[in-house]
Structure prediction request, 179 residues.
Amino acid sequence: LGIGNPPETLVAVGSGVADLVVYGTNVYFTVHLPPDMPGLAPPGVVYMAPADVPTDVADLQWVALDQSEPWGIAAAADTIFWVNGLGNPDDQPKSVLASTAAGGGGPGLLALGQTAPWGIAADDSLVYWTDWTDVKAIPHAGGDEIMVAQMQYLARSIAVDDTDVFWINQDKVMQRPKP
Prediction:
């Protein structure tokens, strides 16, 4: 292939792709569908498709349907994690959710009552996300939220490596050792 060749379209869903992650042989991505009425936040879907061949939108598999404006997505330990925004329908708005990487099993709720979740990352034991002014973590199986950082105005994208958590806020790239 190379730089001189055009990229290949893997899936065309029309509009609203928010984030993606490749895990195993699949690509998983969050999509905001057009809202039912002007002024409503868009409903969304978490999809999966083979990462190596184009897929017709009619043949897409889903991980979760009728989500509340899904944004960031991450994968680890055979699990897909994502954050929902305010969204409509009111299916777990402002929350952190998880489902098996095989999909179709329905989402499990990890954290509810967030302010404005946006970015998400995961390692083999914890899920990390940004929530407007906070950076948080929680075990894959749920439990108590762990505060990683506070007062991080407009915390958005987040990533983890073996030892640290990295995120951006309005004007900085931040780092802290994992909890």
